[in-house]
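Weekly structure sync, notes
Attendees: PL (lead), two postdocs, one rotation student
Agenda item 3: pending single-chain targets
PL asked that the sequence for the first pending target be pasted directly into the notes so everyone works from the same version. It is reproduced below exactly as submitted, 548 residues in total.
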Amino acid sequence: MKILITLFVILLLIPSLLSAQEILGQIKIEPIHEREATSFSIDNDNATVIISTPIQNLIVETSRRNIIRSKKEEGRRIIILPAGTERLTFRAKGYEPVEMEPYNFGKKKVYDIKIIEVRAPRGVISIVGKGSVTINTDPEGATITLDGLPGEWKSPAVIKNIIATNYTITAAKQKYDSASITVTVIHDSIVTIPTIKLAPQFGFLKITSDEAALLAINNKLAEYARDSIMELPLGKYLITLGKRRYQTFSKDVVILSGDTMTIQHTLVPTFAYFDFSPLPVNTKILLDDTPSQRVLVETTPGEHIISIENNRVGKLRKRFIIAPGATRMIKEMDIQDPGDLLVESDAIAQLFIDDSVALLSVVKNNIPAGLHTIRLVHKDLGEEVRTVQIIPNKRKDVFITMLPSRSSAVLLSVLPGASQMYNGMVTKGLLYLSSFAVSVAGSYYFYNEYDRKNKKYNGFVEEYKTTTSSLRAAELNNLITASYPKLITTKDQRQLAFGITGGIFLWSIIDTFIFPPKYGYRKQEDTAYDLRVDSDSKHITMGINVTF
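Predicted structure, written out during the meeting:
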C-alpha cells in the first residue's frame, strides 16, 4: 500500500517538475517601428509585419484570425495582415505567452516588431510564475539594472511582472560608488528590498577665514565664500590661504566620503604700528637704531628697541614687544629709567610684586617707575599688601612686619594657649585654652556657691544665738548640723577648682618658656636678599648677600 501511495505522489510531482523545467524565460516585445512599404509588400491593400526573433518555435496569433500569408525565415517571420486593428499574441514552448495591446495596422505599411527573450539568470528549475520588486536608493535618482533583464530604471522604482527567481540588483549614480544586492522575486508578490545606500565619491570643504583671503587648492586658485561649503572629489589636498601683508597659511587635508572638512583660521598680520605722536616735538626718535618721525610708524611684530632723546629727559632706551596688527602708543613715561625698591620684613614669606612671584621676603629690585603692588603671603601669619610709588632713579624703602612685637610676644606668653596656637601647635593651644576656660568657669561657680551656702549657714547660726523659742532653736540646730558638711564640701571644691586653674595657667607659661613665640624687629638684620626684576618681561634674577 505504501509503495502505491509513493508512486502516486511521484506521478503527481513529475508533471509540475517538467512544467517548471520547460519555462525558459519570458517573451518581451519592443516598440513597433512603422515605415513605408518596400519589396516585401504583396498587396497594396494589406499590411506587412516583419517579426525579428531568436525564438525558433514562435507562434503568432491574431485576434481576428485573418493572417493572409505567412513566411518563415532565419531569425524572422513575415506575415501579411489586412488593414485594421489587431491584437497579436505570441507563444513559444518554454516561454510564458505575451499579448500585444490592440494596434491599428494600415495599408501599404511595413511594421517591424522585434521580439527578444528574457531568460531567468539562475535557478530556472525553481521558476514559478511572476512577481514584482520595489527598489529605493539613498540618494534617489540612481540607475537600476537587474542581471538577465534588459533595460534600466530610475529609483525609486517598482519593476513589475518579471520572472519569479533570484536577481542581482545594481544601483549606480554619477559621483557615487555603485552597489549591488541579491533579491528573490516571489510569485504574485511585491518584494520591497532595504534601501540601497550609495557611498559618495566626494566630500566637502568649508573655509572660515578672512573673506579677502585668496584660496588655493593644490596650488591652484579657487573661488570661495566665507562659511560656504565646496564639494571636492575624495583625496588629499593642499589648502593655502593667502593675503597681502599677512602670513600665508597652508594645511594638508584629506577629503573623505560624505565628510565635511572645516578649516577655521584667522590670518596673522605681518605688520604692526608704533604711535610716537605723544612725544614732545623736539624729541629725537630711533626705532631699532633707525631714525623715525613723530608719527604712526609701521614695523614688524615682535621685539624692538626704541630710543628717545630731548632736553628734558636726556637719552632713554627701552625694549618693546608688539603683537601682530597692534598699534602701540609711546609716551615719555614708557621709556623712563626704573627706580629701586627695597622690601624688608621680619618674616621669611612669599613675595609678589605686581603678581610676579619672588621667592624671598627681603628683596631689592630695579622696577619701572609708577605704582606697584607688594604682597607678602605667609602660610601661618597671613597676608600683607602695600601699594608703593616708584620714582625714576630713586629708591623706595618699604618694611612690612608680619610678626608681633616683643611686648606682644610677652602678652602671648601669659595667655593660656595663645602662644601655642601662634607657634602652629593649634591642638595643644586649644587644649590649654579650653581647659583654662573650663577651670575658670568652675572656680567661679564654686566660689559663688560657697559664698551662698556660707551666708545661709551664718544666718542659721546668728538666728540660733538670738532665738528664745526652744522649738525654733531645735529646728535651727538641725539645719546647722545638716548644712555644715555641704558647706565644707563646697569649700573643698572651690579650692580644687582654684588649684586646677592655677596649675593650667602655670603649665601654659612653662610650655611657653620651652617653646617661646617669635617676635619681630624693626630694622634689617643678619640676611639681605637681592632680587632684580626685568621691567619688561618680569624675569626675576636673584643674588644672596649674607652678613654676620
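Discussion points:
- The chain has six domains: 23-119, 124-197, 202-264, 272-335, 339-403+526-546, 409-514.
- The first helix runs from residue 2 to 22.
Action: rotation student to compare against the earlier draft before next sync.
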